[in-house]
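INTERNAL TRANSFER SHEET
From: sequence group
To: structure group
Subject: NADPH:quinone oxidoreductase family protein

Please process the attached sequence and return the structure record in the designated field. Keep the field labels unchanged so the import script can parse them.
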Amino acid sequence: MQAWRVHTTGEPREAMRLEEVPEPVPGEGEVRLRVLAANVNFPDALLVRGQYQIRPPLPFTPGVEICGLTEDGRRVIANPSLPHGGLAEYVTAPARALLPAPDALDDAEAAALHIGYQTGWFGLHRRARLQRGETLLVHAAAGGVGSAAVQLGKAAGATVIGVVGGKAKARTAEELGCDLVIDRTTEDVVARVKEFTGGHGADVAYDPVGGDAYTASAKCAAFEGRIVVVGFAGGTVPAPALNHALIKNYSVLGLHWGLYAAKDPAAVLACHDELTRLAADGAIKPLVSERVPLDRAADAVQRVADGTTTGRLVVVPSQDPGAAR
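Return from structure group:
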């Protein structure tokens, strides 16, 4: 089979190689899946660069989220077992963690449902306790993680403010249903939030960016507001001024979705059921901007690493549907 492999960490376009390799052999408690679609996530770029908290042995195949087909013909969502990641024709994954792919979503959309939407759901509902009628501020609102939070916020009945970088991404955020879109390249985020909310500020801020995005969230946080720290795609890990949190009575909440999978798997299953319902109702739909063939996967990972993408890039290996085995 074909698989992208990393022998030496570095920038994706340089470090990733498309190679012919044997199909992975399932270990104890694992199953083999034919990859129908593999969503490209920012952690894939960090894995290739050697900057992720998990460092699989070299050589490895990146790709942490797929829609795949079991040998008995079930369409499922899975997190492949590294070092055999999803940017390949076949993967292995823990059998107990397989989730049924929603019928309302195609393969590429289903591949993009799991990590981003689970992170959004746990961040907004479990951590921040977002309430109907509250104001939600979403950074990188046109990106894969941000667009999920926008849709989930709207589904929860919140007023959603999306922050983006550039006119093209602003149009995408508007199409997603944001009640206000702020272009951070030309507008003052804090001033616009305060103006739009009549000085109240954002009840919840969802931040996958870090750096200046976190600083803006703190400055426009409402009384008893909540800032959900999801990641640092901007490259800068902020150092919160805790005296500021004390004075303004807001909370800073960390969100590492992977811990729920390890510590409360029942909650992950319940969340998937809710996401499946929302997808069936048309309330959420992963924003897949491009379906990329397997031979262009390295370029897709590089573009996600560079922060130039809108929505999700999903790698779709080209195979005969009858090739599953």
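Handover comment: Residues 265-280 form the longest helix (16 residues). Residues 2-113+286-323 form a domain with the Quinone Oxidoreductase; Chain A, domain 1 fold (CATH 3.90.180.10).
Transfer complete.
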